[in-house]
Give the backbone structure.
Amino acid sequence: MQAKTFTLLLSFLFVSGSLFAQVTSEDSLNKNSLSTSSTTIGGYGDAFYQRNNNLGTSKVDLERFVLFTGHKFNDKVSFFSELEVEDAKVTGGESGGEVSVEQAYLKFNLNPNQYIVAGLIIPRIGILNENHLPNTFNGNERNYVETFIIPTTWRELGVGLFGSINGLPLNYSVGLMNGLNGSGFEHGDGLESGKFEGKNATANNLAVTASLQYYQGNFKAQLSGYYGGTVGESKRKADSLGLNSGIFGTPVALGEGDLQYAKGGFSARALATIVSIPDASNINRAFASNTPQTEYGAYLELAYDLLFLNKRPHEQQFIVFARDERFDMNYQIPSNGIYDGTLDQNHIVAGFSYLPNKNVIIKADVRFITTGKQNPDLIVNPNPAAVPYQVNNNLIDLGIGFSF
Amino acid sequence: MVIGSLSSCATLPVYKTAVANKQVSVPTALFAQSNFQLIQPQGMYYNIGLRKEDDGSYTALLLRCTHADNQLTPAGNNGYTCNLHGSQFDKEGHVTHGPAEHDLKKYPTQIVSNQIIINLS
């Protein structure tokens, strides 16, 4: 294992060395340079009202406010970052709210078709992970498949190569980054609690990701995948927990495919994904987290811009949409797992997105939720004041969003 | 096989060329079978999308996102897309989806002796 780690380290240093070696004073004076150094800022955010009809509750939340800061050193090297505040306020001792670095990486352009990123990076997995600005998707909430099955804005520390192939409408990406934290998995939130997101990540376990995108006519198709270890402990400690350690020990595998179509004012997107944790029983034995063996999710969204034919193109948009989301966060469970029917869900979401200009959006939608039944074995300390679980619910959302 | 439009291309014809006096020269013959060429000027870190219009003129767009300077990808019928934040531009270079707010940089072109001259200055 040490030899493998050493080889990976050498590879990284080699790539890094090659990159830095390319940046010379001669290059900085390149006669074809398009721009000098510059610093840019940008950002995005969204806020919405949500009514939960079953609980009879309503809330209003500034869900996200994110500031971009970028700096271009020259045409070859630039820096990009996103700093996020969730729920507007973070107070010591109180739950809720989060301040986090969502991305922070150096970008090295190799040529017009390829670049390398290094730092806190977002791998190309699914649609929303990479393109998550509120004016790029319909509905106030990000779709649940790309929230609970594919973690949303899933970033880790690593290095990635992004490129396109000369002569073909084909893009690709490959990445190497730290793996997940299997001891952090929590019942009911998929891989979410296993993410390190740049904070003291273990690096004994690593992950690889890759994607392929293909454009043809009005279609864009993508396949992407992730494979990584979840045990970053020392071998001695992992052995004592009965877990396989090493780079890809006790692995998580994720596969995803999506298809997008856009013509005139009509657009459609479909996505399917599956997560496999073959050693989930070992994780449960070590951490009693009721980790599933298999999760899956899929959705189909159809949308139409009612203003497409009536207005000058690209000014205002009034998009009506409907989306069917289906996912099960414990589709298969190991022998020591407990099935939770509430994690098997179907959501129908319908509503509209009004964009007075391209970067400002006003959204309204209703989400009809149907789940499986609650498993009484999972109710350890029932709250006498709790509303009895209902398999049908609906949420009404009204909100705003922006990006710049 | 090169099919004659950006919108329906199964391949993306690419022409690599040098930059001389801040100009790029592209043979008009390249457009005999296609109305689109991806131009890769030597030493530049962005492609140029060169498209032959119906009136015989040529439009040269710098494929650099106007939001965060990322390289753009030709997106079939739907112009150009930026994978970094999702900005999209139509084949004329107009923004169709943010966060980009400005259209793509357009270079002037002229035809001299069966060569399309793209002026990069």
